Amino acid sequence: MKILNADQMRKIDRVTIEEVGIPGIALMENAAIGILKVLKEEVEDLGKERIGIIVGPGNNGGDGLALARLLYLDGCDVRVYLLADKNKISGDAKTNLDSASQIGVPISEFPDYKTFSKAKNDLLSETVLIDSLLGTGLSRPVTDYYLKAIKFLNEADIPILSIDIPSGLPSDTHITDYPHIIADITVALGNPKIPHILPPTAIACGEIFVADIGIPESVIDEHGGNIYLITDKDMEEILPKRPMNSHKGDYGHILGICGSVGKGGAAALAAMAALRTGAGLITLALPSSLNSSFEVGLPEVMTIPLSETEEGSVSEAAYETILKSAAKKSCAMVGPGLTTNEETSRLILKLIPILDIPMLIDADGLNILAGNMGILKKRKKATILTPHPGEMARLCKVEIRDIEGDPIGYTTKISTDYNVYTVLKGARTIIASPEGAIFINKTGNPGMATAGTGDVLSGIITGLLSQGLPPLEAAKLGVYLHGLAGDIGAEELGEYSLIASDLIEYLPEAIRSVVED
Predict the structure, then answer these.
(1) Do 219 and 249 reside in the same domain of the chain?
(2) Domain, as residue range, for 155
């Protein structure tokens, strides 16, 4: 599903109306039908609620007026609060205003804040509010009347459903200081927009639903840009079915260059996550002092004991051993628990351009790579980078606040500049392809903000890569499963108690839900 900006949505609306021939009034009616469906699904005993619809002067207000008519015809207790001069309403919104008025929908007009103040007691008696004040075309902060109205509505402590976008939010950014409605539910019309998906604006949107308003998919495909939301449907059937006569060699052999004394847990989490995702075999290239504990603690994982530095990290002398081991592997996972020891760093910088297998680089592998990004251009096989914002800032030589301000831009730049797949981890993980396509994941929760969850993600993606999935599909499905396992774990344990190994425990259930769907 494509994520749109305001210009794209306007063009798609225009093409749908003028070239395809679907009238704007029909799109507005479809929007109202979709919103009504959400209301009926999310509000128990809707007919018992007192519903106030806050209507503005534009097409967003027209959507609210169409909804008011449908609610009224459905027997609901509904009132319209028109925060505009009714004589200035035009086009399809005017058609819906006249229609609602003619069938008897109670409509009160409040062209200024002085008149609106008289309606406050009535508003406070409503049990559900519908926000159709302003739409996606906002280009500057609200002031005066609407600023005061939005403040009052937020303080009213009444559940709010916003139509398309909470009034006051701009539609093209996820960071804003614009005053805005704080909604419990937002029904995006046609397609989601950036503020619906990325925090902090996504927090103001509450729970997101998307209403199909009848725009042809071909029009969205042609004019909708290259940013996509990963949906449940997208993930179905990505994992190939396993034939009865398969064996472990059919599902890949991973070489993990991970771990050091004191950070062996990162390697262990990544390895077990890869196996739980379905990888056939994994061999960890470890400092020799870790070898015994891994053989006892992780019997499914093979190891190669390597020479190590005084700090207990892999030493540069291990270069030839690793090269020889990589010859028959399906892919490599580099980074979890490595440290940035100077000698270890030299080893990794020699290995990255020369290993002729697909590779995922995470954690200390990324920290070692920072300042040496040019070596990525020497790689012949696919490369996946999985930074968190701090690591991304080091790779891009900027501040974390810069990454947080434009995560899509920086993720795209890294991928297109260095011909890699980039997975920027966060509350909404962003994936970019070398061609510049962007995919945003919606699974996951704050309970996953704990040590080791990034290592688990590395293992999941590498496990999928080892089974022959193309790198983009492995990254998309990997972040989806990772977040879904976290969501399942949070349901069982709560967000506060969730730890990284829980994700591995609930990963089979996450995979099963995708495969069985």
Answers:
(1) no
(2) 6-225
